TrEMBL record:
Coiled coil: none annotated. GO terms for molecular function: dipeptide transmembrane transporter activity; peptide:proton symporter activity; tripeptide transmembrane transporter activity. It comes from Parashewanella spongiae. GO terms for cellular component: plasma membrane. The lineage of its organism: Bacteria, Pseudomonadati, Pseudomonadota, Gammaproteobacteria, Alteromonadales. It is a multi-pass membrane protein. Keywords: Cell membrane, Membrane, Peptide transport, Protein transport, Transmembrane, Transmembrane helix, Transport. It is found in: Cell membrane. Signal peptide: none annotated. This is MFS transporter. The keyword Transport applies. It holds the Pfam family PTR2. Gene3D superfamilies: MFS general substrate transporter like domains. Its main location: membrane.
Length: 489
């Protein structure tokens, strides 16, 4: 429960910030759409890649629990920096750099602690991670709905400076509450953690980690400031990871190779998925700002008015609605000997992602004066979120299922590098719908967005066809791997 609560508040802070960050850069700092998309794309990439180092620090240097707490403290500092009223862009980059480092220390160790608590009890472990995943979505949903309202109310009373930065302060306060909950309940975790947790805190190692964290913050800020550096970072990370991936497959035992090839192919498919995923916080967010009617009507009756950033909450809301249904469906198919492989689920995931983007693209046909109904966002996000559950939701399970234990750490890291790199590529794709500053007429911006969404729909169809083409081979490799596992038992 202690880990679950701190995770609720950590996600509360992160998604509250993410809901506003693209709007903050465009509306407050005056960034062009193209710059805002790439800055947030680079930040998202760093946020995904950083847990690779944080997990190692937790296991080998400071301990899982200490590293998790240190990460939460550093993240709260990053959000606190974002509450300072300033339009200095370098200050924003440093603040995001602090969040990147804090996330890298916190995220892998929180999940790892859950695994250690229920080690050896697979049934309870599944339940624990289900609760843990729901905690993520509860925290994110509440903050995405809340922070835009707080920003709007504070702006109306105290002005734009207090509005934006007061909303960011909610993220900081949320994480402090999470830390308070953790320290109040930490005795329940006294018997859990890594080997390093059982040893006295080594001050020299702590100082080493803090100095490394400061350097990592500065490096992250430089990457966010200079887009050429961001591109180089992403492309080099992808190249190195791919080379090592291929090397490990080539050097693996013959009996292990089929499972590793499956992981490699599905990881490539995951890269394409996260390009679509990044549109939620870039092109779709700006589309909601400029071309969506914020009034929610049912049969002609006005129900409520959205804040643009609140549409982002549709994603975790749909995930919470659809997750129990998918869990029931998976259990039903297992009981009836209907085997849906991971590769099949990836294929179906791209089908519904394509449907989601086609819903967004068709919105122009029903728009009035360049504004489309908020129902378009609801149903588009519904289809997209189902695709996310089928693809992204199975990514880590895929690693655990097909990768030999001795390679598990690297392959998990490779998965996060691939996911993070594609977040940046998603920002690049979003720039195909970047709107010049002098264009404000919804009738002019609408076709720019719908054209991008239409192309993304067809791109998802292309991914679907590729998934379908490699599906027989993946099924054959999967069957071969399962035969090997059965022999091992």
């Amino acid at each position: 429960m202690a880990v679950c609560l701190i995770e609720v508040w950590e996600r509360f802070g992160f998604y509250g910030m993410q809901a506003l960050i693209i709007y903050y850069m465009v509306q407050r700092l005056g960034f062009e759409d193209s710059k805002a998309n790439l800055v947030w794309g680079a930040a998202a990439a760093l946020i995904y890649v950083s847990p690779i180092v944080g997990g190692w620090i937790g296991d080998q240097i400071l301990g899982t629990k200490r590293t998790m707490v240190l990460g939460a403290v550093i993240m709260s500092l990053g959000y606190a920096l974002m509450t300072i009223p300033t339009v200095n862009t370098w200050f924003l980059y440093v603040s995001l750099g602090v969040v990147v480092v804090g996330n890298g220390l916190f995220k892998p160790n929180a999940g790892n602690l859950v695994r250690k608590i229920f080690k050896g009890d697979d049934e309870r472990l599944d339940s624990a991670f289900t609760i843990y995943y729901m905690a993520v979505n509860i925290g994110s949903t509440v903050s995405i709905l809340l922070t835009p309202i707080i920003k709007s109310k504070l702006t109306a009373v105290y002005g734009v400076d207090i509005g934006w930065h007061g909303a960011f302060s909610v993220s900081c306060v949320g994480l402090i509450i999470g830390l308070a909950h953790y320290f109040a309940m930490k005795q329940t975790l006294v018997y859990y953690g890594s080997d390093a947790d059982d040893k006295p805190l080594n001050i020299k190692k702590l100082v080493f980690v803090i100095i490394g964290s400061v350097l990592a913050v500065l490096a992250s800020a430089l990457i966010l400031e200079y887009q050429a550096l961001a591109r180089a970072f992403v492309y080099i990370a992808v190249l190195i990871t791919t080379i090592i991936f291929v090397y490990l497959i080539a050097k693996s035992e013959i009996k292990e190779r089929s499972g590793l090839i499956v992981v490699f192919i599905l990881t490539i498919q995951t890269v394409f998925f996260f390009v679509f995923y990044q549109q939620m916080s870039t092109s779709l967010a700006l589309f909601a700002l400029r071309n969506v009617d914020w009034n929610f009507n049912v049969f002609g009756f006005h129900m409520w008015t959205w804040q643009p950033a609140q549409f982002f909450a549709l994603n975790p809301l749909w995930i919470m609605i659809l997750s129990p249904f998918l869990a029931w469906l998976y259990n039903w198919t297992n009981k009836n000997n209907i085997n849906f492989s991971v590769a099949t689920k990836f294929f179906l995931g791209f089908v519904v992602v394509a449907l989601g983007f086609f819903i967004f693209s068709f919105s122009g046909e029903f728009a009035v004066d360049g504004k489309t109904s908020s129902w378009v966002m609801i149903w588009g996000y519904g289809a997209y979120s189902l695709g996310e559950l089928l693809v992204s939701g199975l990514g880590l399970a895929m690693i655990a299922r097909f990768v030999p234990e001795r390679m598990g750490g690297f392959m998990m890291g490779a998965y996060f590098v691939a996911s993070g790199s594609s977040q940046y590529l998603g920002g690049v794709v979003a720039n195909f719908a970047s709107i010049p500053k002098n264009v404000t007429d919804p009738l002019q911006t609408l076709p720019i967005y719908t054209d991008l969404f239409n192309k993304l729909g067809y791109a998802a169809i292309g991914c679907t066809l590729i998934s379908l083409a490699v599906l027989p081979k993946l099924l054959s490799l999967t069957k071969h791997h399962e035969s090997y596992v059965a022999l091992q038992k």
